[in-house]
Design goal:
alpha/beta, single chain, 265 residues, 9 strands, globular
């Protein structure tokens, strides 16, 4: 039995579609055929979801409650955990959520369960948050500068997760770095967006401080942490590519143009 958490999110929803009939953990009913209502913050609600589960696909924000999920998984005899982490999950990261990812990864590794970690680069789906600004102003602002980024479609992360969840033993103890096929800048995002929509799109470079203020005014969660990430992207934090998608799936990941054609044209 496979259990998928975060099953209504951008990775989880696609993973469930690819896996077929699996059990899902959701906070609110979504109409799934084998879904269990539960909450990471209430460990007592997890038991029904974890009963008879062999493989846990753990998707969700880097919150301390994931520790409780892992502890309950051990108690229920889960054998393998596939977890979506961060590519820079280290204890001394300047970004708080990356430090939390590192803590959760360490707990998983010490749990006695087999594990596989998926460490994606910047999600292309994050670009969709730019749509209202582009529609209203003909462009968008960002503090990513001219940083080159190996952006990946979250659907491709889901494809890797689904492939591993169906045959986890072959991937035990591995960490897979996941990227798209190319390094792109936000200036190229503007050009490709314009090409997909047939309308000009301006890329406006702003400082990290200005970007944080914009995100705070728009009510973006973790605006300070997000501003740190964009500042790091400007410095080259996302300028890396990996062939791990092909190694796991045997296929090629989607590029930016294909992604925007699906979502923006």
């Amino acid at each position: 039995m496979i259990l998928v958490t975060g099953a209504t999110g951008k990775i989880g929803r696609e993973a469930v579609r690819l896996l077929g009939p699996v059990r899902t953990l959701v906070r609110t009913p979504s109409g799934g055929t084998d879904e269990v209502i539960g909450d990471f913050d209430r460990p007592d609600t997890l038991d029904a979801a974890l009963r008879d589960v062999d493989t846990l696909l753990l998707i969700g924000p880097a919150v301390a409650a994931q520790i409780a999920v892992l502890d309950r998984a051990v108690a229920h005899g889960v054998r393998h955990v596939v977890r979506v982490t961060n590519h820079k999950a280290v204890d001394d990261s300047p970004v708080a959520r990356r430090r939390e990812h590192a803590r959760i990864d360490a707990h998983l590794k010490a749990s006695g369960m087999e594990y596989t970690l998926l460490a994606p680069n910047f999600f292309m789906q994050n670009l969709l948050a730019l749509a209202p600004e582009i529609a209203g102003t003909g462009g968008f602002s960002s503090s990513a500068g001219d940083g080159r980024i190996g952006m990946i479609d979250a659907r491709d992360v889901a494809a890797v997760a689904a492939a591993i969840a169906t045959d986890p033993a072959a991937h035990a103890g591995r960490t897979y770095l996941l990227t798209g096929p190319e390094l792109v800048t936000f200036a190229e995002v503007a050009r490709e967006w314009a090409s997909a929509t047939g309308r000009p799109v301006e890329y406006r470079r702003i400082s990290a401080e200005e970007h944080r203020a914009v995100m705070e005014s728009n009510g973006v969660p973790e605006a300070g942490s997000n501003a740190q990430v964009f500042e790091l992207l400007a410095q080259g934090d996302g300028a890396w590519l990996s062939g791990d998608f092909a190694a796991v799936t045997g296929g090629a990941p989607r590029g930016l143009r294909a992604f925007l054609a699906d979502y923006c044209s």
